[in-house]
Specification:
322 residues; alpha/beta; Rossmann fold; 2 domains; two-stranded antiparallel sheet; 8 strands; binds iron/sulfur cluster
Length: 322
């Protein structure tokens, strides 16, 4: 039986890794490179083995070249047959080429960004690559136990999770999940870091309540405020993402965060004279950046708010995102 610890770059998966070391039995560690992490997270994962004496973290990566190629065919046939305008078809064909960045390529293929209600990113960027590139070849000869760093106190969804679970995914494969830190608090995970002399991912000291995609589609308001203030280049990167994904969308629009994120939501654009509705305007990343700087309930943002708001957590059942 092979034990494999999934590493996200966050404190919880690191705690699982260190617990696996304490167990004193051989294990492997894996991370799925989404192409959308902070450089500090890549470096932290790369150095984890050297800093703890545990196994090197193996890296898997999704590739959406085939899906993007298939979508080009659909745009040229189905979209045209459905009466999608020449302008939108030409824009989609212009952008439907793999960039080599798994997160961006997934969004270009889907013509939209993932959201809390449609969180296909965890499955496509993490669960499937880990399953197909690492678990499946091993499972041909022996069972796999997948260690996941979920904690019940993170969210109502995670509060219901069992310690051991056998899940079946969309591809009908089985996965046995072991959640060794289910009853732990966040403080417990940091205590284990101390015991090993391992500094947690530095992003925790820089206003981030969770570590993973940068930003994650589940990022809290205060995390976004801290991120835009500290790393202004992220805004330009996300503007570029939105422009590319909008071109791959049949609607000709795509925003990184859903319209419901801001209090204004979708804004209707109407003709000034007639008042006839012309279009809908979604809150783009610039609108999100402005919203992230507003106060909540009249209070200024503070570090406590960062941690409280971030605790809503990811609702994925696979525990591959922090
Ligand atoms: S970290 Fe966030 S954006 Fe990245 S795969 Fe997980 S849920 Fe999706």
């Amino acid at each position: 039986m092979q034990h494999i610890v999934s590493i996200s770059g966050g404190k919880d998966s690191a705690a699982c890794y260190m617990l696996a070391m304490l167990r004193g039995m051989p294990f492997r560690a894996v991370t799925a490179d989404t192409g959308h992490e902070h450089p500090a997270t890549y470096e932290w994962i790369e150095k984890l083995s050297e800093r703890t004496g545990g196994p090197k973290v193996e890296v898997v990566r999704a590739d959406f070249s085939k899906q993007i190629q298939r979508k080009r065919g659909l745009v040229q046939t189905k979209w045209v047959a459905e009466g999608v305008t020449d302008e939108i078809v030409a824009a989609a064909l212009d952008v439907l080429h793999p960039t080599g960045n798994p997160f961006l390529d997934l969004c270009i293929w889907k013509g939209r960004f993932p959201s809390r209600m449609a969180q296909f990113c965890t499955e496509w960027l993490k669960a499937i690559p880990i399953e197909t590139q690492l678990f499946a070849p091993i499972r041909a000869t022996e069972p796999v136990v997948s260690w996941q760093g979920e904690r019940r106190s993170e969210s109502p969804n995670r509060a219901r999770l069992p310690r051991f679970q056998r899940v079946q995914t969309i591809d009908q494969y089985d996965r046995v999940i072991f959640r060794p830190i289910l009853h732990w608090t966040a403080e417990n995970t940091f205590e284990l870091h101390k015991q090993f002399g391992l500094a947690p991912n530095p992003l925790y000291r820089q206003g981030m309540g969770r570590v993973g995609c940068f930003p994650c589609i589940n990022s809290a308001k205060a995390e976004l405020a801290a991120m835009f203030a500290r790393w202004p280049d992220v805004l330009e990167m996300l503007r570029n993402y939105e422009a590319l994904v909008a071109k791959a969308s049949k609607r000709g629009q795509a925003t990184f965060f859903p319209a419901s994120t801001t209090p204004q939501g979708v804004q209707l654009v109407a003709d000034q004279k007639s008042g006839i509705r012309l279009d809908e305007k979604l809150p783009n990343i610039d609108a999100i950046e402005q919203w992230s700087r507003t106060t909540r309930g009249g209070r200024q943002l503070d570090g406590l708010f960062v941690m409280q708001d971030a605790a809503a957590g990811c609702s994925s059942q696979y525990g591959l995102c922090e």
